[in-house]
Design brief:
With about 300 residues, the chain is α+β, with helices and mostly antiparallel strands. It has three domains: about 80 residues, 2-Layer Sandwich (Uridine Diphospho-n-acetylenolpyruvylglucosamine Reductase, domain 2); about 130 residues, Uridine Diphospho-n-acetylenolpyruvylglucosamine Reductase, domain 3 (2-Layer Sandwich), CATH 3.30.465.10; about 70 residues, Uridine Diphospho-n-acetylenolpyruvylglucosamine Reductase, domain 1 (Alpha-Beta Complex). It has seven helices and 19 strands. Strands 6, 7, 8, 11, 12 and 13 form a six-stranded antiparallel β-sheet that branches. A four-stranded mixed β-sheet has the order 1-2-5-3, covered by helices on one side. It has a three-stranded antiparallel β-sheet with strand order 16-17-18. A hairpin with a 2-residue loop joins strand 16 and strand 17.
Length: about 300
């Protein structure tokens, strides 16, 4: 469908970029452009924009920190919303005895939030050390790792459905689980976290312990989108297997397609070299899945989010 920019955006408080290089905004730094990138300045603007997109049957996507995203080389149609205005990056703390509630806008940076809670000697968010992205994306995928997941401290989620309805959910009602939840499709606007006061040295040491472990075991200096695949569940016990160990056992470390390579440092990371394209990464993802399926009998599901034009 051809976008009518005046119909969608005419009187809204937004910044608009046409033919925006969103592939370059991801951690991979590759991929195509967005026909229309919109950065609302207020919550009212994003709500009305989503309602108009629903009315006009325009596809809506949300660009957070671009940490686990691969944009197709042919680019993206529809409207891409980026909640990067200061309004969506605010964090407000309120203490209630030894418990502190943090109201966090969806665009708040995870790295900065870890550092801020550490500086304030607040315990409960250390497990996010070394995880890139924004809190909105983190809530959507229930980001985390061996030390815990975001839902461990999540209390409420303010959510905008794709037809423009705003609701606030109690986190306990959303059945958060490994890399998922029952949160409906839509846009996370903000969330509240429950943190607790602790000894500042203990909080600092915990953050550093987690971060140093990730530095020593993951290719953090390379271009990647974090873990490429979810850890699969082994029936009937239901325990999670290591996707990285499966890929390693299939002999795929160092396997490449063009400029995309399975990391020698950690097999569940697909890193890119100069000259890599999004097509190279997509093809490598499929080759890894096929080889692990054939050799291990296990289907790997990508953790990387892949965007392409409608119909591709």
């Amino acid at each position: 469908m051809t976008l009518s920019r005046s119909s969608l955006l005419g009187d809204l408080d937004v910044n608009v970029t046409l033919d925006a290089p969103i592939g370059a905004m991801t951690w991979y730094g590759i991929g195509g452009r967005a026909d229309l990138l919109v950065s609302p300045r207020t919550e009212e603007a994003v709500i009305e924009l989503v309602r108009r997109c629903h009315r006009d049957e325009v596809t809506v996507r949300v660009l957070g920190g671009g940490a686990n995203l691969l944009v197709d080389d042919a680019g993206i149609d529809g409207v891409v919303i980026k909640l990067d205005h200061e309004h969506f990056r605010q964090v407000q703390y309120s203490a209630h005895g030894e418990i502190t509630a943090a109201l966090v806008g969806a665009g708040a940076d995870l790295f900065r939030l870890v550092q801020d809670t550490k500086r304030r000697a607040l315990r409960g968010f250390e497990m996010m050390a070394g995880i890139p992205g924004t809190i909105g994306g983190g809530v959507r995928m229930n980001a985390g790792g061996a030390w815990g997941q975001l839902s461990d401290c999540l209390q409420t989620v303010r959510h905008l459905s794709l037809d423009g309805e705003v609701r606030e959910f109690e986190a306990a009602s959303l059945a958060f689980r490994y890399r998922g939840s029952n949160l409906p499709p839509g846009i996370v606007l903000s969330c509240t976290l429950e943190l607790s006061e602790d000894d500042p040295i203990r909080v600092r040491d915990r953050v550093m312990e987690i971060f140093r472990h990730k530095q020593s075991t993951q290719p953090m200096a390379d271009h990647s989108a974090g873990c490429a695949f979810r850890n699969p569940i082994e029936p009937p016990e239901g325990r999670h297997l290591s996707a990285g160990a499966l890929i390693d056992s299939a002999g795929l470390k160092g396997h490449r397609v063009g400029g995309a390579v399975v990391s020698e440092h950690h097999a569940n990371f697909i890193v890119t070299e100069p000259g890599a394209s999004a097509t190279h990464v997509r093809q490598l993802v499929e080759e890894v899945r096929k080889t692990v399926r054939e050799q291990c009998g296990i289907e790997l599901e990508p953790e990387i989010v892949m965007w392409a034009r409608s119909g591709i």
